[in-house]
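Technical annex, item 7. During the second reporting period the consortium partners agreed on a shared format for inverse folding records so that results from different sites could be compared directly. Each record opens with the tokenized structure and is followed by the designed sequence. A conforming record, contributed by the partner at site C, is shown below for reference.
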């Protein structure tokens, strides 16, 4: 069972859950007027340094 857990964590499903979680965290931070964590932005493929320069 351990091998199955490891393959899910590092495989497609693990990556999909990581992206969904990061998108949720970034969305909540932006709605609250806070800066999202750099790790969440990187997971989504967004450069954390350039995120602050984006305007509405």
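Designed sequence (site C submission):
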């Amino acid at each position: 069972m351990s091998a199955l857990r490891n393959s899910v964590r590092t495989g497609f499903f693990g990556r999909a859950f990581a992206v969904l979680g990061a998108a949720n965290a970034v969305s909540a931070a932006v709605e609250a007027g806070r800066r999202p964590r750099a790790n969440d932005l990187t997971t989504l493929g967004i450069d954390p340094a350039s995120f602050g320069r984006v305007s509405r």
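Residues 18 and 43 are 8 Å apart (CA to CA). The helical segments are 2-10, 12-31, 38-43, 48-51. All partners now use this format for quarterly exchanges.
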